[in-house]
Amino acid sequence: MVINWNNINTEALSIFQEYLAIDTSNPPGNEKLATDFFIKLLLKEKIEFQTFTTAPNRNILYAKITGNDSNKGLMLCSHSDVVPVEKEKWTKNPFGGEMIEDKIYGRGAIDMKSCTIMQFIAFILIKRHKVRLNRDLIFCIVPDEEIGSKYGMSWLVDNHPELLDIEYSLNEGGYGFSDIRINNQPLFGIGYREKKICWIKITAFGIPGHGSQPHETNATAKITNALNKIIAWHRENYNENFQSKDDDLNNIMNEVIDPELVAMNQSTLNITRLDAGNKHNVIPAKAEAILDCRLPNYIDSNEFIHTIKNLVNDDAILFENLSTNEDNLILECEWDTELIHVIKEVLNNDYPNNITIPLTSAYGTDNRFLRNIGINAYGFIPSIFSLEERSGFHNHDEYITKENFINGCKIMYKITETLCSKKN
After folding, report:
1. What are the residues whose beta carbons fall under 8 Å from the beta carbon of 133, sequence distance 6 or more?
2. Is the preceding omega at residue 112 within 30 degrees of 0, hence cis?
3. Are 126 and 416 in contact (CB under 8 A)?
4. With b meaning 16 or more CB within 10 Å and e meaning fewer, what string describes 362-372?
5. How far apart are CA 133 and CA 257, in angstroms?
6. By the 8 A CB rule, do 39 and 61 touch?
C-alpha cells in the first residue's frame, strides 16, 4: 500500500485551516459547529457515526471503523472547544487559519485542533486503504474540555459507557521537545498520568465605605495580604530543577530546566482571577480570588487547602474547593503496554536512539475520565514542539509549524496502522 503523502499533506492542511476558522471558544462553546464540519467529511468517506447532544449547540461525535474483535478498540480522541481569545492582543486573525512563513496561526493550532486533524487523517486513510483491523478504530471529538468536561468526556463516560469498551485512547498530554536533546535526538514524552486539578476560591469580607476614608477592614486589602503570603510560600517551596521519584528518570533529566517538565512532579499554583468592587469610589464589602492549583497524585486537595488556610491565618477569609469532583479520579494508567511499545517503535524509526519518557501532564486532560474506568488513555501529539510553540497553549498568536503538522499526520497514521493491523 503506497500513500501519496504530497496529496494527503495538501488535503490535511486544507481541512486543518478550515477547522481553525470555526470559532468554538468556550464559553459559550458552540461545538456543534465542529461536529457539523466533520459530519460532512465523514459522509463523503462513507463512515458511520453517531452524535450526542449534551447541551444546546454542544455535541459529541463518535465514528467507528469496525475491526475483527481480536482486541479491544483504539479511540483517537480530542476536544473541539478552545479557550477564548483577546483579539486585540493577537497580531494574526485568531480564527483565520492563515499560514504565514510556514506557520499556521489560530486558536487551537496547538490546543488541540491540529492533533484532531492528525487523528482524522489517520482514521480516513485506514478506511480508504481498507486496512484489515485487529480491533475497532474510533474517532471521537468531545466538547467542554476547557471548562471541566461536564458536557463532554465526563458526560460520555456517564451516559454511554457501552461505547467505551476499548483498550486504548490517544489524546493530548505529551509530545516531543525540540529544544531538549538527548543522544542528539529530541526528547519525547507520553502522558500516562496527570496532576490533580484543585481550583480554590478565596473570599475576603470587610466593611464597605467611601473610598476617601481608609479603614482596617477593607476586603481588597485583606485578600491582597492573603495572596501575598500564599505566593511567597509557593515560591519558597518551588524547586526550579526537574525532580522525580524515579531515579533513572532523574539521571536522564538531571540538567533539564524546562518550565513544563520542572512543574511535572510538584505542586503549582497561580492566581487566575480577581474580583472586587463595582465603583471606583466605594470600598467593597467582598473580594474574591481564584487559585488554579495542580497537585501530584499523592497530595490530598483538602489537606493542601488546609495548609494554605493555616498559612493565611485569618478566620474572616473563606476557602472553597471548586473541583471536588476531581478528588476521587484515578489519574494514572499502565506504562508497559503494546501501544507504548508501538509508539516507541515508530519514533525510533524516524529518530534512532531517542529517549521517550513517561510524562506526568502538568495540565488536566479528558484522559482522566477514561483512566478512571480502566482504559489505558495516553496523551501524545506526534509533533516536536519548540518552546515558542509550546508557549502557545492558551496564549496569543498560537501557531504550529507546517513541518510539525505534516510530520504529525504521518506519525499518527503509522502508530494507528501499526497497532491496529498487527497480527497477534
Report:
1. 65, 66, 67, 68, 126, 420, 421
2. yes
3. yes
4. bbbbbbbbbbb
5. 42
6. yes
Write out the three cell numbers for 269. 499554583
277 φ/ψ sector (left φ>0, alpha ψ -120 to 50, else beta): left
What is the C-alpha R_g of the chain?
Answer: 23
The C-alpha cell at 66 is 469496525
Residue 20 bridge partners (DSSP):
none
Could you give the CA distance from residue 334 to residue 368 in angstroms, rounded to a whole number?
A: 13
Name the one residue in this structure whose C-alpha cell is 464559553: 27
* Cell, residue 343: 509508539
Residue 216 pLDDT > 80: no
Cell 482514521 belongs to residue: 123
- Gap between the terminal Cα atoms of the chain: 21
Give the residue carrying C-alpha cell 467507528. Answer: 64
Under DSSP, is residue 421 helix (H, G, I), strand (E, B) or coil?
helix
**For the whole model, what pTM was predicted?**
0.90
CB 68 within 8 A of CB 408: no
Helix (H, G, I), strand (E, B) or coil at 194: strand
Q: Per residue in 393-411, pLDDT tens?
A: 999 999 999 999 999 999 9
How is the beta sheet containing 196-205 ordered, strand by strand?
268-276, 286-295, 196-205, 317-321
Cα–Cα distance measured from residue 87 to residue 89, given in angstroms and rounded to the nearest whole number: 5
Cell (9 digits) for 234: 509557593
Q: In the structure, what pLDDT confidence band is assigned to residue 1 with cuts at 50, 70 and 90? A: low
354 close to 185: Cβ distance less than 8 angstroms: yes
Angle of CA points 365, 367, 368, to nearest 5°: 85
Grid cell 459559550 — which residue?
Answer: 28
- 303-347 residue pLDDT tens: 999 999 999 999 889 999 998 777 778 889 999 999 999 999 999
Q: Residue 353 forms beta bridges with which residues?
A: none
Residues 281 and 212 sit within 8 Å (Cβ to Cβ)? yes
DSSP 164: G
Task: Give the HSE-up count for residue 290: Cα atoms under 13 Å, Cβ half-sphere.
Answer: 10
H/E element, 116: helix 113-128
Q: Are 157 and 93 in contact (CB under 8 A)?
A: no
